[in-house]
């Protein structure tokens, strides 16, 4: 009640020296409000900043004014800017590798070195590949497509002979791709680039004469404007491109029943079949299979839609689970599925048998693993499809297991023959192998090391290093990591990774860090995601270490901590963990994250004014919602490319695919749940100030369109920033020629790290 003290002083900002200092007031631009209101399920919902959804001169002027305010504030921050920027530059530009791919006469590998903004694709002869990089030969360099480093490679797909490669190239960070086809021997492009490709890989026919890919109809914009449009992405379809022909001759071979579904096509290991999937959102799919020879792709005239549809046979049709094709022996196909197994299992489906309504004729090959282990991915590899590699999530840490497959029985049987050993808890970042070779490559990292690439021999079960990836720009000796568990609001134990930094005589252990005034003063940044069945394994991010070392040097205790909360909504413990925080249960993800903050304070790692939070995309929604629900718990909020208007997200680009996770505003019960936490709407109802907030977006983000950040910032400034003197600054940072994050140039990454983490250091390191 009013006038009563908080139940615990740990969450009172009055204990903080930092909060006692007067905070400089930010003068925000005036933002027009309109009388926009609509009745949704009987509730009148106001939307005064809807005009910011439209690309107009008025909106452009508003963005420019916001930039002036943000630049002035960021330019005047007190923190070691030059030191942070130099560290960010070194850790970001140090040499990095992708996962190698073995082909008949060479290995293909991507690498990025110092002074390069993007990865370059190389080939290297097998007999020299393990020695050093001197024998690398450039196959494709995206820097040649853009003078400012904003052209980037996405998907890379070689034909089986290694004679051709199809490369998906993005520009300015957009999800749109153009597919460029390269002749490996001549290093020259063949055919004109394929356009209007999005959310697609390429899958080659066995003879290399063409490939399948997925595209949308031609959009309303072109050139540099590609990626700035906001209209819904619909009518995704699979096409077949024959080498030596124009895209206008490409055949549409698969189109889902609903225009909002997305699609994919994978040629089977044997080369005789193509496996089509249509996705309802991101976590369930249907599966259909066609014998390639029956599609009529080699005919002189385009096959008719009727003929193509007659050649496609349904395997899974109920959109209740995920089915991922992993390999086959003739008509017997193996799928990784969570149908009947929350933590996934492997089943065999004989596509030659008739389909019986909704009852799938499937046989279990590998049951759900014991304990809490989750099968994250699986691949059939080795000659005669006789081996299978699994990447397994074990209490969020990754392990890899090697199985042998026996196809002689009525159902395939598997036997575990080896567990690939790693020296410490790791995240498996990549795994590459196929049914032609007896070698599999693993690329892995840890929280404090960029890790290694291993070459694993399927015959003798041994592994040897292919590359050890160096760590540059920070002092590796000052970092340590651990995993702890904390209780959420309902008693569920949530995993929490902690990375500690200690400089000088600082204490980086789990004991409290106490400053001269007796107050716990260690700065902590807490990161989370909690959605779409995505697990936050202990992967390496150099920017974290650059931040940590700079924070520790700026802290009175000479220590700092970075925390990663594995909250529900993710996939850390399988589908049940995921479903525990979707739709009407989405609040559980926020409660888990808030509990992480409370744990860090109660265990005296930090205090609220020295606790920053950060998340991107769905994680941006997470930190914005938590800041509104518990502004007293956090000292700083960094919201990257967040989904913030939860009543209109489904109307823009690919937002409609997120309704299985968020729920749909068109369904009354789900609408009410969305309205209860939607950051854009709830911030206009606040009766107290917000902690300092920096919201980041980009002009070519066509995944989470920037209007989410625009509207939230306008509402937060108008209804909170100008109203409550206790409120921290609420700022907007808009990157240009950048998108949702993938493919961002190193130079842009460095600038972003410097400004967003500098914002955190400025507010929590005192």
Structure description:
The chain is an alpha+beta fold and 766 residues long. The strands form nine sheets. The protein has an eight-stranded mixed β-sheet, with helices on both faces. Strands 3, 4, 5, 6 and 7 form a five-stranded antiparallel β-sheet that branches. Helix 5 (542-554) runs parallel beside helix 13. The longest helix is centred in the N-terminal third of the chain and has 19 residues, at 57-75. The chain starts with 16 loop residues before the first helix and ends with a helix.
List keywords for this structure.
disordered N terminus; eight-stranded mixed β-sheet; globular; alpha+beta; five-stranded antiparallel β-sheet; 766 residues
Q: Give the amount of beta strand, in percent.
A: 25-35%
Mean pLDDT: 92
Radius of gyration: 26 Å
Number of helical elements: 13
The computed structural class is: alpha+beta
Share of helix, binned: 10-25%
Which overall shape is indicated by the principal axes computed on the Cα atoms?
globular
Q: Order of strands across the widest beta sheet?
A: 33-34-36-35-37-38-39-40
Residue windows where pLDDT falls under 50 for at least 5 positions = 1-23
Question: What order do the helices and strands come in, and which of them pair?
Answer:
Blueprint: H1 17-20, E1 37-40, E2 43-46, H2 57-75, H3 81-93, E3 96-97, E4 101-102, E5 106-112, E6 120-125, E7 137-140, E8 151-158, E9 164-171, E10 177-183, E11 188-189, E12 194-197, E13 203-204, E14 210-215, E15 237-242, E16 251-254, E17 262-267, E18 273-279, E19 285-291, H4 305-311, E20 312-316, E21 323-329, E22 332-337, E23 345-350, E24 362-366, E25 374-381, E26 387-394, E27 397-406, E28 413-420, E29 427-432, E30 439-445, E31 452-457, E32 462-468, E33 479-487, E34 493-502, E35 524-528, H5 542-554, E36 559-565, H6 575-579, H7 587-602, E37 611-616, H8 618-629, E38 636-640, H9 659-662, H10 668-677, H11 679-682, E39 693-698, H12 707-721, E40 730-735, H13 746-764
Parallel strand pairs: 35-36, 35-37, 37-38, 38-39, 39-40
Antiparallel strand pairs: 1-2, 3-5, 4-5, 5-6, 6-7, 8-9, 9-10, 10-11, 10-12, 13-14, 14-15, 15-16, 17-18, 18-19, 19-20, 21-22, 22-23, 23-24, 25-26, 26-27, 27-28, 29-30, 30-31, 31-32, 33-34, 34-36
